[in-house]
Automatic annotation (TrEMBL), chain A:
Cofactor(s) needed for function: pyridoxal 5'-phosphate
GO molecular function: L-aspartate:2-oxoglutarate aminotransferase activity; pyridoxal phosphate binding
Protein name as annotated: Aspartate aminotransferase
Source organism: Galbula dea
Reactions that this protein is recorded to catalyse: L-aspartate + 2-oxoglutarate = oxaloacetate + L-glutamate
Subcellular location: Mitochondrion matrix
Segments forming domain Aminotransferase class I/classII large: 30-397
Gene assigned in the entry: Got2
UniProtKB/TrEMBL annotation, chain B:
Domain of life: Eukaryota
Family from the record: Belongs to the class-I pyridoxal-phosphate-dependent aminotransferase family.
Organism name: Galbula dea
InterPro entries: Aminotransferase_I/II_large, Asp_trans, NHTrfase_class1_PyrdxlP-BS, PyrdxlP-dep_Trfase, PyrdxlP-dep_Trfase_major, PyrdxlP-dep_Trfase_small
Protein name: Aspartate aminotransferase
Length: 402, 412
């Protein structure tokens, strides 16, 4: 007999997950998974931060109940999140002219913001993304009912920022459009503007009267310094640009599956923040009612316990440093292999990902001949590189590019 | 100061049930009782973390092989399979025939939302926002918002509660189903109807299923109280399983908030029953896309607790025992409240207090009587007259009964 679902098409497989699936099936002992963006230690293993384990022990000893959180989430968490992003000396933070709600990691926080804009930002339906951007940005905004546009960002010729192209495009964006910016460690390219470039971007964005939405998924994880990584967000706010902000604790605290994140709106004043907050709750309630406690409690405990916060800053720097060290070693090994190409972009880029500049055919060879798995666009997750396999990786890249 | 883009954002009214709890918290009267929000309380009026949950959490904490890596988009496989098995039964033909699917979700709400989003995109055509969605009158107030926000434009109610006889308006319900356009979606409460506590009998469910089959109506079950209603998992799942045995394709949004006491961990599951495996696979692949733009992948802690418990015969038995403890206390409070009202000679009939099932009771108190209860007696309940039986304890039963008696006799 017939089904309601006969006409439902098979959804296309997720390209990144597809990489991991293929990797799992490969029996080559030298295989490398440079696809999915989760941090690995120098043994290639998932890393649970010591401050996280300590926070978990502290939480367990308190024997708390499991009552529903408020719709907007754990207050200690949202306040600490805002302070982490904005800085304790931030006028916006101290005056209370902001609202922060707990979100389901970065994705959930982005989606709340997207839905909020769809419902209340009537000036425009257009969201401008950098070219390229995280693959999930487009469907998130689209499902929220907005339209996607792009501004130039990555220059494949130089494997770095196409600053003049970006400025050119952004200066032509219609007024009151929404522009999404990666706060640090751009995904997928690893290419971030320098501070002087951020200043020019801020001036242009202000002149065009654009609504700025920052996606900050790597604070602390990019440079190793939480203040440095939040510099652009804080600068924009200091310039009087009332931004929207999505934060994730998946990478910088290794809380991936606990789904800890936050969505913030900088407002004119505390009264407006209260109105905005009330509407965010109206959006959240029919989505999942209220957020999951575990990740937020861990993050809150870390941020609000001085010793744990100190330890976290050291550990997140440790992760960032290992990534930076792998970048350096990869370039050094490529030189040792005798590669004549300019690989400087590998160390110029920052964060978990690196846009190698490899072409699809070269990527395919890496996979087929060397069992090295990455996405077709040549993006590698540097977190998958270890001191044990960086030599092999350099050798393989040299073979397919010489 | 530049004009803000949010200047025009109006202040939204607070969600009623949470405002009630907020008001309760601020009340300084020592006699105060909270019969509002739907969470289990012990006889000491305290939240209760199930002993089996404490045990399993300790196991998880001691397991150093566990980390915080992402779950798959559709969730923890062991959780999904076990959760659906709980709803459909170990011997479910649908499971045997491999035509079920599961999506781990953020609580029952999340499961409803994923199901609603999917139906709006793929049911009764492509992106058919005009498909009527029927919600019981009354129902959990969030049902309406879930389907509105999922994009449905035509949300209707079906007759359910008969205020005059304080019971199910079966005829009204069946009439609405006869008149509903073909392919309409019906939200059915699997058991322990919220807020009325009034469920169809098995015989009545059979009649409902017959009409739905004949008129090609889509059953979307909301199962938030399995085990918690009667104390028996199987009994509380009877309706869902009957529909499956009648060959329906259906959705069932499951919540583990109440029956596992895991409220703030957000543990839910959307069970999909289809005609065959191929259909279910395609449905799941599209649900994956919806999940990816909503929360990417679900939280792991709560799912681990439930999966570990359901997969172990011993822990499973302990859990069923914990569930029965909760259900039995509710049943006791029902019978105690009813007997007190009858002893007091409170006007009206009070058998509905024990005939209704689950966490809630639709007392029949009018809005004015409710206001009296809150303002004069500091007993907090919903304007609809809904009370949470879990808010009753052996210590406050007398006070609550006397207060109801006063409200009914003083306010007409």
């Amino acid at each position: 007999s017939s089904s309601w679902w006969s006409h439902v098409e098979m959804g296309p497989p997720d390209p990144i997950l597809g990489v991991t699936e293929a990797f799992k099936r490969d029996s080559n002992s030298k295989k490398m998974n440079l696809g999915v963006g989760a941090y690995r230690d120098d043994n290639g293993k998932p890393f649970v931060l010591s401050c996280v384990r300590k926070a978990e022990a502290m939480i367990a000893s308190k024997k708390m109940d499991k009552e529903y959180l408020p719709i907007g989430g754990l207050a200690d968490f949202t306040r600490a999140s805002a302070e982490l992003a904005l800085g304790e000396n931030s006028e916006a933070f101290k005056s209370g002219r902001y609202v922060t709600v707990q979100g389901i990691s970065g994705t959930g926080s982005l989606r709340i913001g997207a839905n909020f804009l769809q419902r209340f930002f009537k000036a425009s339906r257009d969201v401008y993304l950098p070219k390229p951007s995280w693959g999930n940005h487009t469907p998130i905004f689209r499902d929220a009912g907005l339209q996607l546009q792009a501004y130039r960002y990555y220059d494949p010729k130089t494997c770095s920022l196409d600053f003049s192209g970006a400025m050119d495009d952004i200066s032509k964006i219609p007024e009151k459009s929404i522009i999404l910016l990666h706060a640090c460690a751009h995904n997928p390219t690893g290419v971030d503007p320098r501070q002087e470039q951020w200043k020019e971007l801020a001036a242009t964005v202000k002149k065009r009267n654009l609504l700025v939405y920052f996606d900050m998924a790597y604070q602390g994880f990019a440079s190793g310094d939480i203040n440095r990584d939040a510099w652009a967000v804080r600068y924009f706010i200091d310039q009087g640009i009332n931004v929207l902000l999505s934060q994730s604790y998946a990478k910088n605290m290794g809380l991936y599956g606990e789904r800890a994140g936050a969505f913030t709106v900088i407002c004119s004043d505390a009264e407006e923040a209260k109105r905005v907050e009330s509407q965010l709750k109206i959006l959240i309630r029919p989505m999942y009612s209220n957020p999951p406690v575990n990740g937020a409690r861990i993050a809150s405990t870390i941020l609000n316990t001085p010793d744990l916060r100190k330890e976290w800053l050291v550990e997140v720097k440790g992760m960032a440093d290992r990534i930076i060290s792998m970048r350096t070693q990869l370039v050094a090994n490529l030189k040792k292999e005798g590669s004549s190409h300019n690989w400087q972009h590998i160390t110029d880029q920052i964060g978990m990902f690196c846009f190698t500049g490899l072409k699809p055919e070269q990527v395919e060879r890496l996979t087929k001949e060397f069992s090295i798995y990455m996405t077709k666009d040549g993006r590698i997750s540097v977190a998958g590189v270890t001191s044990g396999n960086v030599g092999y990786l350099a050798h393989a890249i040299h073979q397919v590019t010489k | 100061m530049a004009v803000s883009i949010f200047t025009a954002v109006p202040r939204a009214p607070p969600v009623a049930v949470f405002k009630l709890t907020a008001d309760f918290r601020e009340d300084g009267d020592a006699r105060k009782v909270n019969l509002g929000v739907g969470a289990y309380r012990t006889d000491e009026g305290q939240p209760w973390v199930l002993p089996v949950v404490k045990k399993v959490e300790q196991m998880i904490a001691n397991d150093n092989s566990l980390n915080h890596e992402y779950l798959p988009i559709l969730g923890l496989p062991e959780f999904r399979a076990n959760a659906s098995r709980i709803a459909l039964g170990d011997d479910s033909p649908a499971i045997k025939e491999n035509r079920i699917g599961s999506v781990q979700s953020l609580g029952g709400t999340g499961a409803l939302r994923i199901g609603a989003e999917f139906l709006r995109r793929w049911y009764n055509g492509n992106n058919n926002t005009a498909t009527p969605v029927y919600i019981s009158a009354p129902s959990w107030e969030n049902h309406n918002s879930v389907f509105v926000d999922a994009g449905f434009k035509d949300i209707r109610t079906y007759h359910y509660w008969d205020a005059a006889k304080r019971g199910l308006d079966l005829q009204g319900l069946l009439d609405d189903m006869e008149k509903a356009p073909e392919f309409s979606i019906f939200i059915l409460h699997a058991c322990a109807h919220n807020p009325t506590g009034t469920d169809p009998t098995p015989d009545q469910w059979k009649q409902i299923a017959a009409v739905m089959k004949r008129r090609f109506l889509f059953p979307f079950f909301d199962s938030a109280y399995q085990g918690f209603a009667s104390g028996s998992l199987d009994k509380d799942a009877w309706a869902v399983r009957y529909f499956v045995s009648e060959g329906f394709e259906l959705f069932c949004a499951q919540s583990f908030s109440k029956n596992f006491g895991l409220y703030n961990e957000r543990v839910g599951n959307l069970t999909v029953v289809g005609k065959d495996a191929d259909n279910v696979q395609r449905v799941l692949s599209q649900m994956e896309k919806i999940v990816r733009t909503t929360w990417s992948n679900p939280p792991s802690q709560g799912a681990r607790i439930v999966a570990t418990t359901l997969a172990s015969p011993q822990l499973f038995a302990e859990w069923k025992d914990n569930v029965k403890t909760m259900a039995d206390r509710v049943l006791l409070m029902r019978s105690e409240l009813r007997s007190r009202l009858e002893s007091l000679g409170t006007p009206g009939t009070w058998n509905h207090i024990t005939e209704q099932i689950g966490m809630f009771s639709f007392t029949g108190l009018s809005p004015k009587q409710v206001e009296y209860m809150i303002k004069e007696k500091h007993i907090y309940l919903m304007a609809s007259g809904r009370i949470n039986m879990c808010g009753l304890t052996t210590k406050n039963l007398d006070y609550v009964a006397k207060s109801i008696h006063e409200a009914v006799t003083k306010i007409q």
